[in-house]
Write a structure and sequence with these properties.
The complex is a heterodimer of chains A (about 120) and B (about 120). By secondary structure, chain A is an all-beta fold. Chain A is about 0% helix and about 45% strand. Chain A contains no helices and ten strands. In chain A, strand 4 (about 30-35) and strand 5 (about 45-50) form a beta hairpin. The N and C termini of chain A lie far apart (about 35 Å). Chain B has about 120 residues and is mostly beta strands. Chain B has no helices and twelve strands. Chain B is globular. The N and C termini of chain B lie far apart (about 40 Å). The chains are: A mainly beta (about 120), B mainly beta (about 120). The interface between A and B is medium-sized, with 30 and 29 residues.
């Protein structure tokens, strides 16, 4: 598509329920990132996918968080047994793979999913 | 590891006035620097970036930022703002030596409120 698409745009869930957030990156973008933005705070890196390589999960805050991506297509971020502290905007971004030695030219972000855990 | 500090959470300014949004970073390695803008109800968009070369970089809509290595700053400026510049602005850095993940470290954002 023309941009990075995220769904749903808003999600309200009860504490303890599981949620699944979806990201559809720009076609051809091999790199995909998930970030979390809590109210009044900067974006926190969660996970990174690059093509068919093993994902970099170093930013996931707990084992309740997981993410999948099939090849270079859609990614889903799953939060199990949601807690109130999981309330945040979850942002997805994608980027083409730069050539060796090429500087990055920035991500393209989706509009995010606003998750509210009540 | 890097960190980014945006000291001002909100900056109110009148239309046609100049504005400066401050960004300071801390890093033990060389970094790339970015400014992203988030307009109401929209996703983050890349505004400008410093990769190498001239320390003064400009965007297409009149913003500019200057990389100051000695002060570890990358302040964003515009000589005359418009109502349409009302948005949240995020400063971010990326480790130059990170040729794999290329993760960004973001500041907490500055909300620019342009008043008529």
């Amino acid at each position: 598509g023309a941009g990075v698409s995220q769904s749903p745009s808003n999600k309200v869930t009860e504490k303890g329920k599981d949620v699944e957030l979806r990201c559809d990156p720009i076609s051809g973008h091999t790199a995909l990132y998930w970030y979390r933005q809590r109210l009044g705070q900067g974006l926190e890196f969660l996970i990174y996918f690059q093509g068919n390589s093993a994902p970099d999960k170093s930013g996931l805050p707990s084992d309740r968080f997981s993410a999948e991506r099939t090849g270079e297509s859609v990614s889903t971020l799953t939060i199990q047994r949601t807690q109130q502290e999981d309330s945040a905007v979850y942002l997805c971004a994608s980027m083409p793979t730069p050539y060796a030695g090429q500087a990055p030219y920035g991500y393209t972000f989706g509009s995010g999913t606003r998750l509210t855990v009540v | 590891a890097q960190s980014v500090t945006q000291l001002d959470s909100q900056v109110p300014v009148f239309e046609e006035a100049p504005v400066e949004l401050r960004c300071n970073y801390s890093s033990s390695v060389s970094v790339y620097l970015f400014w992203y803008v988030q307009y109401p109800n929209q996703g983050l968009q890349l505004l400008l970036k410093y990769l190498s070369g001239s320390t003064l970089v400009e965007s297409i809509n009149g913003f500019e930022a200057e990389f100051n290595k000695s002060q570890t700053s990358f302040h964003l400026r515009k000589p005359s703002v418009h109502i349409s510049d009302t948005a949240e602005y995020f400063c971010a850095v990326s480790d130059r030596s990170d040729t794999g993940r290329r993760a960004l470290t973001f500041g907490s954002g500055t909300r620019l409120q342009v008043q008529p």
